[in-house]
Write a structure and sequence with these properties.
The protein has no helices and 28 strands. By secondary structure, the chain is mainly beta. The mean pLDDT is 97.
Length: 304
């Protein structure tokens, strides 16, 4: 099989080009993407593969988008406003906004306790980085956790009740214990600049700026594999049925595809320079690659 471009969805331009994190609401058949250059979240229809609208809220410097389908929630990190926003996903109603640390970026949701973790880049950027723990029921910050460096992508592990977040420097993954809302461990990453992160079958897949997709055992931190990448990566997406991983790389503008079971490189597909972020629709399997120069989402499907 091969990843083939099958379409393109134009997205209305903002004041500046630039997209960031994206996530999907499978039940509603909608894809949400942070349109950072427009201070808004764009909504795409996954059935008709068209642009629907933007959420009716100004979200300055919006960077992170995270959906929890089980609790019908959509979260955003509004980097320029030092806050997170909480929406009900099904009707896109704004439920509240909470001030967090400077320049919030990655997000993770502890659904057992209804707590949102915002990973903040600090002020100035990269200094005094923190994780804000937001209690949704009271819409307030319960705790601020000091981080050892600049955080990037984060994932919640429901099985172990932990959150993992990449730290750019030192190159490591911080492990947060959700019950106590504290740092429990750090896992060393043998490649500079951990960025994109995915968790599957007890393995952490970490796309690092050093040009490596590092695979670590979630529990021991042992390195299972190191797979070369053709540039500096960003987002990782995963097809659970095919067990394939897709790593978006803005320069030179490609997606690198891997077999997540055999840990083998499959192919590298051209996208567009600057296209560093993507979203995955698991219902009608399709990779959405967000292209700032073209102003929209390029669609890719597995064919053959």
């Amino acid at each position: 099989m091969s990843l083939v471009r099958t379409g393109f969805i134009p997205i209305p331009q903002g004041a500046k080009p630039g997209f960031d994190h994206a996530d999907v609401f499978p039940r509603g058949r909608r894809m949400y993407v942070a349109h950072t250059g427009a201070d808004r979240i764009e909504v795409l229809d996954c059935e008709t593969r068209t642009h629907l609208h933007a959420l009716p809220a100004e979200l300055p410097g919006v960077a992170g988008v995270l959906i929890d389908e089980e609790h019908d929630l959509l979260f955003s990190s509004d980097r320029a406003a030092a806050r997170v926003s909480v929406f009900r996903c099904s009707d896109e109603q704004l439920l509240g906004q909470v001030g967090v640390g400077p320049h919030p970026n990655g997000l993770a949701y502890d659904r057992r306790r209804r707590r949102l973790y915002s990973f903040n880049l600090g002020e100035p950027l990269g200094e005094g980085c923190t994780a804000s723990v937001v209690e949704l029921d009271s819409m307030r910050v319960l705790a601020e956790l000091q981080l050892p460096g600049r955080p990037r992508w984060a994932v919640y592990d429901n099985d172990c009740d932990r959150i993992y977040t990449n730290i750019q420097r030192p190159a490591q993954i911080v492990v947060l214990e959700c019950e106590r809302a504290e740092i429990a461990d750090t896992l060393e990453v043998p490649s500079a600049g951990p960025h994109g992160l995915w968790l599957d079958s007890g393995r952490l897949f970490c796309a690092a700026d050093g040009g490596t997709l590092v695979v670590l055992d979630r529990d021991s931190g042992d390195v299972i594999a190191g797979l070369p990448l053709p540039g500096v990566p960003d987002v990782i997406m995963h097809d659970a049925q095919l067990r394939r991983l897709y790593v978006a790389i803005g320069d030179p503008g490609v997606v690198s595809c891997f077999d997540g079971e055999r840990l083998e490189a499959l192919e590298t597909v051209e996208t567009e320079p600057g296209a560093h972020t993507s979203g995955w629709d698991p219902v009608d399997p399709c990779l959405y690659v967000f292209c700032p120069a073209s102003g929209g989402a390029a669609l890719y499907e597995e064919r053959g």
